[in-house]
Amino acid sequence: MRDLRGRAGSAIADPEREREHLAQADRHIAAGRRRVTDQVALIARLAQDGHDTTEARRLLMMLEETLDEWRVHRQLILGAIARLTAATP
Questions:
Q1: How many CB atoms lie within 10 A of CB 25?
Q2: Mean pLDDT value across residues 47-75
Q3: What are phi and psi of 11, to 5 degrees?
Q4: What is the pTM of this model?
Q5: Which helix or strand (DSSP H or E) is residue 60 part of?
Q6: How far apart are CA 83 and CA 65, in angstroms?
Q7: Which end of the chain is more exposed for a tag (fewer CB within 10 A), N or C?
Q8: What is the pLDDT averaged over residues 2-23?
């Protein structure tokens, strides 16, 4: 997960930049949901045709874990926006 700090380690103090990060996180989450949906459908087809779904299920679990991490990251971005917005007079 990306740290919400600049190169020198100082906190980012730009709400607009965090909004851009939020938009990117939203795109990643939407793409991740599509991947999960596609993988579920693939597992169903494999199972229907009598194929082993062990590896496909393992990949699904990793996709879901990644999606969860992206959601956590999105919440961190929202928190940063809220703090930066509250600090702005």
A1: 19
A2: 98
A3: -65, 140
A4: 0.80
A5: helix 54-87
A6: 27
A7: C
A8: 69
